Amino acid sequence: MTKSRLRTERMKADLHIHTNKSDGSLSPREVVRWAKNKGFDVMAITDHDTVAGLDEGRDEAQKVGIKFVGGIELSTFSICEIHILGYNIDYKNPDFLQELQKVQDMRKDRNIRIGQKLKDLGIDVDIDFAANGLGRMNMARQLVKEGYCRDINDAFDRYLKPGAKAYCEAKRLTPVEAVKLIKKYGGFASVAHPKKYLLDKRLDMLLGGLKQFGLDGMELNYPSHNEQDKKNFAALMEKHRLLPTGGSDFHGDEDKNFVYDLDQRTARRLHV
Predict the structure, then answer these.
(1) What is the value of pTM for the model shown?
(2) Which of 69, 77, 96 minimizes the C-alpha distance to 181?
(3) Where are the domains of the chain?
(4) Which residues of 224-235 are buried (b: 16+ CB within 10 A; e: fewer)?
(5) Does residue 4 have a pLDDT over 90?
(6) Residue 20 to residue 22: CA distance in whole angstroms
(7) Residues 99, 271: Cα–Cα separation, whole Å
(8) Which terminus of the chain faces fewer neighbouring Cβ atoms within 10 Å, N or C?
(9) 11-100+172-270: which CATH topology?
(10) What integer pLDDT is reported at residue 179 of this predicted model?
(11) 61: number of CA atoms within 13 Å, CB side?
């Protein structure tokens, strides 16, 4: 099949998937098999602040026959917590890895402080709070597993969400710093799940500001986005000349039936 023909075909995609290298429950190999079994043509692993699962995921994708995009989801803070997806970064570049380590150190510092707060509350869970890629979802699962909480929501409500007993703020990149980091190493930068931020008119300002630093896209297709949301977001993307991305935000322990057709312009930019 020729490359030109591939470009005209619809490709089922999921460009937002997490593994156990951050706060997912499945290994990179397992999520690749999950995506293949779901019938996706293209998938991306986008772990929080780490690229540790990309080599394993890419190798497995080649074995099972699915197009693979290496990615990352960078946690940032401006007027609220905002996540920036990066695709096709030169993730083996030593300079990039050195810069990413600084991001991971900020996450690690926050996690250790959460662990200490839990201990102070008499909760001593079996988890390495200094591990790279660890997220609050990992902590929530362990709290449930060890019987401290009924379920994930209970763990966040009682201990891990902002304002809860063990919550700690983390030092983070700004959205501009995240976009600049992705672009510096050849990547495609996209704002993740915009509906979560409840920014209303400020989303327009955020996109305009980030566009000046090379923002490429925004996550138009996402499980919680209804048709009106997508219509509103599409208008903003047209205004700022951004390309659509999309994904399920799969973490391995939920049933995701989300799938979308990858936009051909985005596919070309991602070289799939």
Answers:
(1) 0.90
(2) 96
(3) 11-100+172-270
(4) ebeeeebebbee
(5) no
(6) 5
(7) 25
(8) N
(9) TIM Barrel (3.20.20)
(10) 98
(11) 22
